[in-house]
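Objective 1b: paired records.
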Amino acid sequence: MRPSKCASGLPTAQPMTRTRRAPCPSASPPLAPMPGFSKDRFRLAGFFPAPAHLSRAEFKHHFEKLVDAIVASSVGQKNILHYDLLFSNNDLDSHTKELGFNETPLAAVILVETQTYEGMQEILHDPLFRQILAGHNGKLNFTSGQVFTGELLGKVAKSRL
């Protein structure tokens, strides 16, 4: 076997054949057959704008408290593999406004991973989960947010040193 290169010139671990080039290591994997499904995870994302009456610190405190309660619940402990929280800030607003973007609203983004679709369904239909949400809805106003599933594609532009 001789080393080969894909169309972009990157080396590959697979040899070249006369009829076909080896796939690039940076090539995107094929999408899963159904949105939100992958071989080893089911992902749900949510975007929740902050209510106008809460400060940044209050919003972050209440949202973290809500997520902590969900993760600590028995259904959360059983099904949640990983979650990420992202709280918006306006650190780059002066730069992004020049590009035509609006000012960044105060909001939270959550990405939750479970092993399966059924695990996510179990969380969403759990009476304690619904009780936890209802207990925080007055402070956080979930009806102004959006929740969706989808395929998460991770790309690496540059390796870390």
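Objective 1b, second protein:
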Amino acid sequence: MSISSISSMSTGTTVTSYNSSNDTSQLEKQAANIKQQIQEESASDDDEQTKQAKIQQLQAQLQQIESQIQQMQSQKTSKTQTSVDSIKSEKMENSNTNKTNDGKNNSDNIVDVFA
């Protein structure tokens, strides 16, 4: 598991991503938290320049998290497709092996009958 962290000094926000096989829920919670922070900052009493700087920083973090979520979902889909392809391949190999074995059994039976 690799852990990366981005800290924001002006907003006090820390974004941590966990690269696990399926778990995007933690990232989705972080995205929701950042969206809330953007709304709070929009309604804050800060001057317009400070407000915009903080919002831009939060939006950049949100974009990064959404990108990570999308990447994890894509990897999950890719792994699923690879698993399906692998299963199909194994079934075809087993089917071909069974046909070959059936042919061998039939030829053995024929030889046994004539012997």
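Residues 3-114 form one domain. The first helix runs from residue 25 to 42.
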